[in-house]
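testing teh design pipeline on a random one, pls ignore if ur not involved
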């Protein structure tokens, strides 16, 4: 009633007997169900009312790598649609080193034995990554590695099955991470994601700390000093 459609038509949508609602109907359903921006985008993708083909991995351009390296005080990295880390700056490489065995952020969260020690806020981090996976799965077709990853996690991880079956549609709601790193101790970091323009399958993640904080000092100690010195020398060379 709230969406202005008949109960019979709505039932056919829910049961998969009707798969091509109009944009007006999808918009009305989004409003009636009080969907957030991510849930609305998800619904429109499922209804094939928006561009939905996701590339099967764009290359990390030299300019994008340069952007990552331009964050000397933060950990910056790029992931593909299947949560695989495909590029990092020096700080991110050191930060993520304890989780590198799985190759993907979400795989490490649910399958690495030390993940719950590494992520002090494991529950929030895990739910955020599961939500991101679900949004990525709404592309048609989804990234081939993503399908295999979800199947692997559904079989191997009970916590993942519980979160996946929750059907929550919110893209990466957590905007912070609390990490206990074996090399530098506790870090409280802001966590931001950015879509890479021209490469819809890639996402840049930046983890940063408040200036002057203990976490900022810990990030500085993670970054290789020779890399920092090289950057400084290059900057002075440019100024001259």
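output:
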């Amino acid at each position: 009633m709230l969406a202005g459609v008949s109960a019979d038509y709505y039932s056919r949508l829910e049961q998969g007997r009707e798969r091509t609602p109009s944009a007006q109907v999808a918009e009305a359903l989004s409003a009636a169900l009080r969907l957030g921006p991510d849930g609305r985008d998800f619904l429109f993708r499922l209804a094939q009312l928006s561009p939905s083909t996701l590339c099967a991995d764009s290359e990390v351009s030299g300019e994008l790598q340069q952007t990552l390296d331009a964050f000397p005080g933060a950990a910056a990295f790029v992931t593909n649609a299947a949560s695989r880390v495909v590029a990092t700056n020096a700080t991110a490489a050191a930060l993520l080193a304890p989780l590198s065995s799985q190759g993907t952020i979400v795989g490490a969260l649910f399958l690495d034995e030390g993940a719950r020690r590494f992520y002090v806020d494991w529950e929030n981090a895990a739910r955020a990554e599961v939500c991101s996976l679900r949004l990525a799965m709404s592309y048609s077709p989804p990234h081939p590695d993503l399908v295999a990853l979800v199947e692997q996690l559904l079989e191997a991880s009970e916590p993942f099955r519980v979160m996946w079956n929750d059907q929550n549609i919110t893209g990466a709601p957590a905007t912070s991470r609390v990490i206990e790193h074996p090399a530098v101790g506790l870090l409280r970091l802001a966590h931001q994601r950015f879509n890479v323009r021209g490469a819809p399958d890639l996402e840049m993640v930046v983890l940063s700390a408040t200036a002057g904080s203990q976490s900022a000092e810990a990030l500085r100690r993670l970054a290789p000093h020779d890399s920092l010195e090289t950057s400084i020398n290059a900057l002075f060379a440019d100024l001259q």
